[in-house]
Amino acid sequence: MNSRAPNDRLRRDTPVAGQPSTEMWGSDAIAALLRDMDIPYVLLNPGSSFRGLHDSLVNFLGNERPQMLVCLHEEHVVAIAHGYAKVTGKPLLGIVHSNVGLMHASMAVYNAWCDRMPVILIGATGPVDAAKRRPWIDWLHTARDQASLVRGFVKWDDQPASVAAAFESLMRARQIAETAPMGPVYVCLDVSTQEEKLAAAPRRPDPSRYRPPPATHAAPELVDRAVQSLATAQRPLILMGRVSRDVASWNARVALAERLNAKVITDLKVGAAFPTDHPLHAAPPAIFLDPAAVKALREADVVMSLDWVDLAGTLKQAWGTGEVESRVIQVSNDQTMHNAVSMDHQGLPPTDLYLSCAPEPAVDDLLRALPSTSSKSSRVTTRTGVAAAAPVALSKGPITIAMVAQALQHALHGSDVCLLHLPLGWAGEMWHFRHPLDFVGSDGGGGIGAGPGLTVGGAIALKGTSRLPVSILGDGDYLMGVNALWTAATAGVPLLAVICNNRSFFNDEVHQERVAKVRSRPVENRWIGQRIDAPAPDLGMLARAQGLDGIGPVTSADMLQDALVDAVRRLKSGKAVVVDVHVEPGYNPAMAAGVTRGHG
Ligand SMILES: Cc1ncc(C[n+]2csc(CCOP(=O)(O)OP(=O)(O)O)c2C)c(N)n1
Ligand SMILES: [Mg+2]
Hints:
alpha/beta, six-stranded parallel beta sheet, 35% helix, globular
């Protein structure tokens, strides 16, 4: 992480001090443990099911560490925590109301699950003891098994029935969430446990004794076999998948590829994993494989996956239904997550050698075992910051996403930037990544509406660092999640979101076009049921309405460069800024082919 300036703190609502008291309530004890856990923020949307805990966070802890950040929708509670984890690798706390709050939050939990990102979500239930329920509302907001709403996509859940049990539950929740593969966890607190009066402060566990286990390593003989296979390969290739944001690990991956002279493919679904302008980087990063990546994969005699998302599907893009002719080394411990309600475990890849661990320990072990004299190529990458780009020419013409990328790079040239989200029409060649925080990856579960929340979460993590938080979002994604941005405005979090506004849920126009062609029906109708254009929502005004700066709409190329230079100036002065840019609809060919591939 870059050095932090003193302005990393968010704006905080300060409670007045009450009368000194020795009284203690169940939720005070739970809040005290949350303080011990040393997590800076708790995201929430209020609800009576956790009014006891809410009071304790304000009046017992003074709204500090954890500091409350209010969200306008529970989906953002989780999306913001998810965005923070993508930058830091660490969980924030979220609290959502019984039943209905959790239902709102559920899509974002799913995204965090598929993205293998830690979030500690706390919920609550009306009195488990039916005799204590208020008429009507307590019954609506109590469930027989509330966690069942999300159990299919959390790593662990619990409903502790006492303060002591809640202590243990929270310790276990954090330990499990932070153990690789990481993921969201859910702890549901009974309202009666929170509101019970305690005779004395219970002894709390020491969180430092409940840390996640250190990373496990593959057995030495398996590492030896992998070294043998890679060192003797003629054309090795590494698929760099879910890896950490750690710079030392980034350098280790570069050293490994160089020592093996292995080609590398990276993925836009996950964060930057390898310098995209390195000579060994074989093809632009993409959601679906670029043709150059398919070629490199088919030519490889040994393919090593470092926890690549969907290894089977990727091999299928290269080899079709035929036999995969490369020898496949899989480095992943993702199998421990493979019992979700969804099929996010993807297809089962052929695996000739299986190292069941996370990429980082495997890369370190391989590097130690490979003699450095075996280096077949060497190159040190030292450049950082956004690459130089010519300004976008002044013309009255339409704007493409590629022009937005170019103009933004021109405006940001030389700054360290973290791209916190990219739109579906993005193409990998539009921007080079040279640092693990240059790009943090996609939403994980394909749940549209996550972009704004992920942006706010990433921006919270970056506040006070020298790295600028920037997102480029689709208009559909923005409009579904737009009120996540209010949390950035109220907490004083700078960010820049540029909306590639094609006035459409365009992804689905591509699908309708395909169906129309297959059925010999008019493709001209593909827009019906998709366009967001009559009226076209004013995206800048939606930002201004929430206290952010809103620029636009930027409707022709001659307006673009100045608008983005202005936006970057405002970002650097500490503002949260949205720019509405009207772009031509269109996807790159690999993306268009990938999204519409037949179901048969
Ligand atoms: C919650 C949710 N609803 C619907 C979809 C289906 N869907 C996939 S992409 C997309 C369109 C997104 O629109 P936008 O962000 O404007 O990007 P564009 O397709 O226009 O490039 C939709 C509706 C989804 N993935 N998630
Ligand atoms: Mg769109």
